[in-house]
Amino acid sequence: MEEYYDIGDIIMYVAADENTSINVFAPYVNVCQTVHVTSGVQILPLNASLRLRGSELARKGIRVTSDKPITVYVMSSNNNEDTEGYLALPKSILSTQYMIVTDYGNYDIWNSTSEFVIAAVESNTVVQIVFKTNGTVCINGTTYTSGDIYNLTMSELDTLQIQHVHDLTGTFVRSNKPLAVFAGDQCGYGVPGVVKYPACQHEVEQMLPMDFLGHEYITTPLYPMEFYRFRIISQFDNTVVFLQGNNFTINSGDFIERMETTPQYIFASKQIIIMEYGHCHWQRVQINESNPSMITLPSVYSYSRRYTFYPVDMFAGTNFISVIIATDKSEDLMLNSKRANAIKKYYQGNFTILILSVERPTNTLYHTDKTVTFGAILYGTRRFGSYGFPLGIANGQTINPSMTTDKDSATTDSGDI
């Protein structure tokens, strides 16, 4: 996806629990290379020309295959001023239906746009986009407004980026074959009229397949950020959302947004998406000054049992984990074979949120009771920015920067990503 500064290579992290060989195929830059990865993490730079620019259709997809289970996560740039990250999902769980979540388009202040990218996995993929937005989206000289449908057929590893000066949240994507879908903002800063001293930051996440969405969530503060923002996006019409003692009914593609300083419990009658936005401060004078990051929040029933991860070493800031765990299990959480020592704790109902600082190149997070599941988000803060993404999303299998030998803990698939 396009970044505001649009400089620096894309950085891909490949994590493996055992020695493996991976193949990276990026036809746009004539790359087809095999890399041998020892147990741990391999950092691979990708040419900046693979970054999409404007509303562009190009064969800029990247295929990563392996002979052993791996996990891939990506930082959008090695430029410290404008980097964000996302967890890459394996091909085996990709879907044909997605709801887009972006952020406010900030064209008036930063000449920045909301944006999303569709990547085709197979040839002859027929894609239908149903727009939801204010204003008009222009594609190849044709304008589309909310409710309009754009159809196209994509070839293997084709990528389509669509940008708009307004929020594109609620736009629906369907296809006849599985897709990978990414969304965010070229350089978002948050709620118009609320952020007093806006400073923008690139935002990106890979959208979850609809089968991975849940009903029950615990939101998490992102200490030391003084506040965070979250969106609740409905997948279906007539979805009743229970939040802060109130009931709200929202329809497909609509959302509720809140700015908070404490954890919140959210339950919905139908499947919903929750996207958090961290806000890191560039001047610590007011709480409404921010460079945001965009983080997919896992539902309570998609927590995993174990995570092995690698803090982003090219990020010139401090790395943290936010762990969401049942309070009666929180004392036996382990980080690198020691009891996890939280630098900050929050409480919400029967859950505790533990904020852990991480510095080692490799970290393993698990519970002494192997049946206990918990949520975990890796994020980083610095004076001029932040990044963040979930360490795992489970739904019968785990998708996380984590390789575990425990048979009862599923891992990412070997094969295509």
Automatic annotation (TrEMBL):
A Pfam entry, by short name: IgGFc_binding
Residues in IgGFc-binding protein N-terminal domain copies: 85-380
Source organism, top-level taxon: Eukaryota
UniProt cross-references to InterPro entries, sorted A to Z: IgGFc-bd_N
Name of the protein in its database record: IgGFc-binding protein N-terminal domain-containing protein
Organism: Sinanodonta woodiana (Chinese pond mussel)
Classification of source organism: Eukaryota, Metazoa, Spiralia, Lophotrochozoa, Mollusca
